[in-house]
């Protein structure tokens, strides 16, 4: 097992392009987010475990249990591991906490559902792209710094917009990882305005902007976040699949 440069041309071919949370994986391969990779052979790798700077950890399609165990042990000396698990994956070491998740994709571009939400923007409300000044006021400011590596990296490579009423932020909507063809999206409605149907409006506009840039939206959430799942279903995502993240605590001296 040896650490491998992320820009090794063979690495992307080792992974399932449809693995859960795939936009974050491909954002690393495209140089938008940071990550580290371990392989079995530096010249001609056939196995790889990749950990993003934001802890998400992916195993290649071909993977022996021993290699996966060694890679997890290696990365645990760096920090937390959130191992993405798909059906049929090889066994992984014990000592993890299971986080049940849902992923959503496969909506219809330019669907009447999305168009209808875009028409629902109330009088006096406006969409504003998130720039540095607006980001400093956002509730998910620190989350974007974590998932994207820094606020500067988010502003350089990713995308966000706020639904606002005057100077007040109502909804923050983000595309926090732009992959190859999909972009991971999410949103938060500020506390006083929840339950009023604002979130799908902002996200419908975000999806439109992503499509103009050649991306399809991808949504994921924890199983115990039914409000997030309801928004995804309202927006017309056709495919809904469960998966798991196995969380390992760091083993740092």
Characterize the structure shown.
The protein has 8 helices and 12 strands. The chain has a 12-stranded mixed sheet, with helices on both faces. The mean pLDDT is 95. It has 2 domains: 2-101, no CATH class; 107-237, Gcn5-related N-acetyltransferase (GNAT) (Aminopeptidase, 3-Layer(aba) Sandwich), CATH 3.40.630.30. The longest helix is centred in the C-terminal third of the chain and has 15 residues, at 198-212. With 253 residues, it is an alpha+beta fold. Strand 9 and strand 10 (182-189) form a beta hairpin.
Short description:
With 253 residues, the chain is of the alpha+beta class. It has helices at 22-29, 65-76, 112-119, 132-135, 141-148, 151-157, 198-212, 226-234, and strands at 2-4, 35-39, 48-52, 56-59, 81-85, 97-105, 125-129, 159-165, 168-178, 182-189, 216-222, 239-248.
Mind summarizing the main beta sheet?
A: 12 strands, mixed
N- and C-termini, Cα separation? 22 Å
Can you give the helix content as a percent range?
25-40%
- Name the beta content range: 25-35%
Number of domains: 2
Instruction: Please tally the β strands and state the result.
Output: 12
Contiguous low-pLDDT stretches (5 residues minimum) are none
Please write the CATH class name of the largest domain.
Alpha Beta
For this structure, the CATH topology of the largest domain is Aminopeptidase
Specify the CATH homologous superfamily of the largest domain.
Answer: Gcn5-related N-acetyltransferase (GNAT)
Backbone shape:
elongated
Total of DSSP H or I helical runs spanning 4+ residues: 8
Average pLDDT taken over every residue: 95
CATH architecture of the largest domain: 3-Layer(aba) Sandwich
What is the oligomeric state here?
single chain
Helix/strand order: EHEEEHEEHEHHHEEEHEHE
The largest sheet has its strands arranged as: 1-2-3-4-5-12-6-11-10-9-8-7
């Amino acid at each position: 097992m040896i650490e491998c440069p992320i820009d090794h041309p063979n690495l992307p071919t080792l992974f399932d392009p449809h693995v859960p949370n795939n936009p974050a994986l491909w954002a690393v391969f495209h140089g938008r987010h940071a990550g580290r990779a371990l392989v079995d052979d530096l010249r001609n790798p056939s196995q790889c475990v990749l950990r993003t700077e934001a802890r998400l950890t992916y195993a290649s399609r071909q993977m022996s249990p021993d290699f996966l165990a060694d890679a997890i042990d290696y990365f645990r000396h760096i920090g937390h591991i959130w191992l993405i698990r798909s059906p049929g994956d090889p066994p992984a070491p014990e000592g993890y906490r299971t986080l049940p998740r849902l992923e959503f994709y496969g909506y219809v571009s330019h669907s009447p559902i999305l168009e209808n939400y875009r028409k629902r923007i109330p009088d006096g409300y406006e969409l504003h792209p998130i720039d540095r000044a607006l980001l400093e006021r956002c509730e998910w400011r620190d989350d974007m710094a974590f998932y994207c590596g820094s606020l500067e990296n988010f502003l350089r490579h990713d995308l966000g917009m706020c639904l606002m009423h005057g100077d007040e932020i109502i909804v923050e909507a983000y595309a926090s990882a732009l992959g190859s063809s999909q972009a991971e999206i999410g949103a938060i409605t500020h506390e006083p305005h929840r339950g009023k149907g604002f979130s799908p409006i902002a996200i419908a506009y975000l999806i439109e902007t992503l499509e103009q840039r050649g991306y399809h939206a991808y949504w994921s959430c924890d199983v115990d976040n039914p409000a997030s799942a309801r928004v995804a279903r309202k927006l017309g995502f056709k495919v809904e699949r469960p998966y798991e993240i196995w969380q390992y605590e760091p083993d740092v001296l």
